[in-house]
Amino acid sequence: MDRITLRQLEALDMIAREGSFRAAARALGVSQVAVSDHIKQLEARLGVSLFDRERGGKGRLSAAGEAALGRARLILADCDALVSNMRDFVAQDTGRPVPKLAAQAAVPLPIPAEHRPVEIAIAPEMPVEPKPAPHAAIPPVPSDQPIMIGTHASILARFQDKLAAFEDAFPNRPVSVDFNCFVADRVALALSTGDISIAYFYALGETRVFPSDYLWSEQWALYVAPSHRLADREFVNREDLLLEGLVSFTAGNRLRPLLEACLAEGGLGKLPFVVESDDYRLLVEQTLEGQGILPLFGAAAARIGGSSGLRRLPYVDPIPAIEVRRVVHPNLAEDDEVQALVATLQ
Hints:
With 346 residues, the protein is an alpha/beta fold. It is 37% helix and 16% strand. The protein is globular. It starts with 5 loop residues before the first helix and ends with a helix.
C-alpha cells in the first residue's frame, strides 16, 4: 500500500481548522473532491475512519481522527523545520541570505516578569522525523569557545544556582544561553550548525533524530475558576469535560502542537479552543471569568496555577507528560569543562 503523503496530512489538518471539507478545499486551493480523495486514501492507509460524516460537508473528527490529527500536525511542523534547515544550507553554499517563509516565523510567548520572554518552538517526539545528518557531518565546535546552552527559561530556573556555581569555578569559560532552542527540531538544527554545546529541551518521548538522555517528566494540570461548575468535584473524568472549552495559546504558537498532541492522546482532542492568546496573564484572567479550562504543565502549572486563585481540577484520566531531555554536542564529549557543566547541572 502507498505511503502516507504530506498532502493527505495537510487535508486532515485543514478540515479540522476550517470545520468542513468544502472550506478546507477553498483554503488549500483544490476541489472538494480532491480533499475527499486525500482523506479516503489516508483512512485506507491507517485502517480507521477519521471523520463522523455529516450533511453539508461538515468535518467532525472521530476519536481516531483526533489522535491522528495531533500526530499529523507534529509531522507537518517537523517538515517545516526541515525546509528551514535546508534553506540555511543554501544560504551557506551561495553566500546569500535566504528569506524565511512567513509561516515559519517564530511566535514570542510572553511569560511572567520573573522570567525572560522566550520564543516558543515546541515540536515533541513523533513517529516521523526529519532525517538527521550523521554525527560525522556535524561541524566541530572549538573547545575554547563559550559554552552555549539551549533551553527554556522554566527549565533553566531549576539550574540557576548550579550554573552560577559552575561559572565561579570556571571563570575563563563563559556560558551563554539560547532561550529559543528547547525542542527537538530546533535542537537538531542547532547541533547541525554547531550553535549549541548542550541542550535541555522538551519532548514527548525518546528522540530519534539524535540520542538524548531523559531527565524528568512534567505533568499537565487543568485549571478552572473557583466558581466553575466542576471546581468542587471530588474527581473529574473525560465525560465531565465534553461540554467545556479550552483557554490556551493561539494556533500560530508552537506550544499548540504539543498541547493538542497531549490532549488528543488523553482523550480530550475534541475540546474547542474558546479563548486563544499568547499572554499568560490574559489566559488566567479569562479562566477566572469562567471562559473555560486552562491547561498548564511543569513550572507554569506550579507558578501560575498555584498563585493566581485558580482551582486545579482533580482530573483522573491520564494526559501524557512532557519529558525534559538533554543532549551534548558529540564533538564535545571529551571537553572536560563541558562535561563538568553537565555533571553540575544534574
